[in-house]
Design goal:
- The protein has one domain: Dihydrofolate Reductase, subunit A, CATH 3.40.430.10.
- 27% of the residues lie in helices and 24% in strands.
- It is built from 7 helices and 9 strands; from the N terminus they run E-H-E-H-H-E-H-E-H-E-H-E-H-E-E-E.
- It has a 9-stranded mixed beta sheet with strand order 5-4-3-2-6-1-7-9-8.
- The protein is globular and about 50 Å long.
Amino acid sequence: MKVIINVAMTLDGKIDNVARRGAKISSDSDWDRVDRLRAESDAILVGGRTLLDEDPRLTVKSAALRDERVARGFEPDPVKVGIVSNATLTVKSRFLSAGTGKIIIFTTEQTSAKQLTFLREAGAVVCVLGKKRVDLNAALAFLEEWGIENLMVEGGGGMNAALLTAGLVDEIQAYIAPLIFGGATAPTLADGAGILDGEKLDLLDLKKLDDGGVLLRYQVLK
């Protein structure tokens, strides 16, 4: 399975501002690229903070791209995957209701039995993989068994860092916007405890976009 982290960030490496309310970073042209990457993916994964705070739809926006997926024998939208220690989603959740993609939630024993029942009745496949933290290796092994070959990761910084530290990432695509947010508490591409030895990367492609941003594509060296 190929795992690609996709991220939009400012020149100073921030993926949101200090308010953490999903500040606009991507340009319209970059959103078109992201939509195509979604359409080319079998599944899209987000971590707990992104899942609960932003409640993303994780759908393909373009009707043409949705039609292309159907022509290839797939659902219009990719599978949606959430990794969250305590899966406190509600009946109003866009993650649970938006689009046509199947839903997989990996969680821990912190999620109550009542909540697990609710999620399953809402149509999600729910796997409990750990007491306090989800076993990422087990989660990705499950996705492979499900037939997921191309997995797109849409954050957040903690999820990105955890996957990188576990050696589970193959590629990073980063749109760098002509913006600076600053702020010591603003989230970055890779948050968490930090990667002391650094993650080694090999530059595969670099494009300067008309909007003033830059698109970088890196292979993660293992």
